[in-house]
Design a protein that fits this description.
- With 316 residues, the chain is an alpha+beta fold.
- The chain is 52% helix and 16% strand.
- It has 14 helices and ten strands.
- The strands form two sheets. An eight-stranded mixed β-sheet has the order 3-9-8-7-4-5-6-10, with helices on both faces. It has a two-stranded antiparallel ribbon with strand order 1-2.
- Helix 2 (11-22) crosses helix 4 and helix 13 (284-298) crosses helix 14 (303-312).
C-alpha cells in the first residue's frame, strides 16, 4: 500500500502487518516461515505501536491511533523542513548576494523531474510554450498531463511551428486538444517555458554553441521575472494561431496554399463574395466555406480580424 510506504513502513513491515490483519491467528513461527528478518520487522511494528508481542502470539492493535500519530509526526517534520528551507535560503542569499528566486538545474534529468512535477503541482492553470523536448529535440506528451486535465487543470500551450513538422507530432497535439488542452501555434518559439499557477516557472533552452552545455534550464519563483515571463506568454498567445482537432498539417507548417493566398488578396482588396466566386469559377457558398476555414485556422472571428492575422503571419 502506497499510504503505508509514505508513512515510512518498510516493505517487510507492511507485508507482516497486512498478513496479520487478514489472518489474525497467524503464529510467529508461521510468520518466520514466510518473512525474512522477522525479529527486526516485529520490532519496527512494536515501536510504532501497531502490534503487541507475546511468546506465542502477535496481536495487531487498532491501527487508527498509531498511524494517526505517525502521520502527525510526518506533518511536523514536513513543516520543519519547509521552515529550514526558508532559513537556509535566507542564509544562502545573504552569503552569496544572489537572488533566491532562481534555481539553475544542473542536468537534463533534473529539468525533466521538475517538468514531470508540474502535473501534480498545478492546481488551476498551466501555461506553456514549447520548442520540443530540450535534449531529445522531439515532441512528447508530458507524464501525468491527461490526469491533470481530468481533474480540471487548464492547459494553454503554444507550439513552435517547427515542432509540428510531421503528422505524428500533430497527432500528439490533437490528442491533447481532445483531452481539453487549448493549443496554438507560433512560427518561432525561442525556448521552453512552463508557468504553474503564477507561482513558479520552468524555463529551458537548447544551446547551438559547440562549447558549453547542450541545454540550460532553471526554475523561476515568484518575482518580477516570473511576472515578465507570464506577460511574454500572454503577448504571444494573443497573436498565435489556434489549433483544433480538425487542423491539418499544412495549416500549421506550410502556410496557405496559392488559392488561399489569392483568396486573401481578393478579400484585402475589398472584392465581394460574388466577385471572388466569379474569379474562382465556384459558387458563393464555396467561397464562404473557404473563408470560414481560414478564419478557423487563424483564430479570427471576423473578416477584418482574418486580414490582420494573415498579415501578422506573413500570408499577405
Amino acid at each position: 500500500m502506497e499510504a503505508l510506504r509514505a508513512l515510512g513502513l518498510s516493505a517487510g513491515a507492511e507485508g507482516v502487518l497486512l498478513e496479520l490483519l487478514q489472518n489474525p491467528e497467524t503464529t510467529p513461527a508461521e510468520l518466520a516461515a514466510s518473512h525474512d528478518d522477522l525479529d527486526a520487522v516485529l520490532c519496527e511494528l512494536t515501536d510504532l505501536g501497531l502490534i503487541e508481542r507475546t511468546a506465542d502470539a502477535v496481536v495487531v492493535r487498532p491501527p487508527r491511533l498509531a498511524l494517526g500519530a505517525l502521520a502527525e509526526r510526518h506533518t511536523q517534520q514536513a513543516a520543519l523542513a519547509r521552515d529550514s528551507a526558508e532559513l537556509l535560503s535566507e542564509l544562502w542569499k545573504a552569503a552569496t548576494g544572489k537572488p533566491d528566486y532562481l534555481e539553475v538545474l544542473p542536468t537534463y534529468a533534473a529539468a525533466q523531474a521538475v517538468l514531470n512535477s508540474v502535473q501534480t503541482e498545478a492546481e488551476e492553470q498551466v501555461r506553456a510554450m514549447t520548442m520540443g523536448n530540450i535534449a531529445a529535440r522531439e515532441l512528447r506528451i508530458v507524464d501525468g498531463m491527461f490526469d491533470a486535465l481530468e481533474r480540471g487543470v487548464r492547459y494553454d500551450v503554444i507550439y513552435g511551428a517547427h515542432v509540428l513538422q510531421d503528422a505524428n507530432a500533430l497527432h500528439l497535439v490533437q490528442a491533447c486538444i481532445e483531452a481539453g488542452e487549448q493549443a496554438r501555434v507560433f512560427p518561432h518559439v525561442p525556448l521552453n517555458i512552463t508557468i504553474v499557477d503564477d507561482r513558479w516557472a520552468l524555463v529551458g533552452a537548447r544551446s547551438d554553441v559547440q562549447r558549453g552545455p547542450e541545454f540550460v534550464a532553471m526554475v523561476v519563483h515568484d518575482s518580477p521575472l516570473l511576472g515578465g515571463l507570464a506577460r511574454i506568454f500572454e503577448a504571444l498567445w494573443r497573436i498565435a494561431v489556434p489549433i483544433t482537432g480538425g487542423t491539418e498539417l499544412n495549416d500549421v507548417t506550410a502556410g496557405p496554399s496559392l488559392d488561399a493566398k489569392r483568396l486573401l488578396t481578393y478579400l484585402s482588396a475589398g472584392l465581394t463574395d460574388e466577385s471572388i466566386a466569379r474569379e474562382f469559377g465556384v459558387s458563393e457558398r464555396t467561397i464562404a466555406r473557404r473563408i470560414g476555414r481560414l478564419q478557423e485556422a487563424l483564430g479570427a472571428q471576423t473578416r477584418f480580424q482574418l486580414g490582420v492575422q494573415a498579415s501578422r503571419q506573413g500570408w499577405l
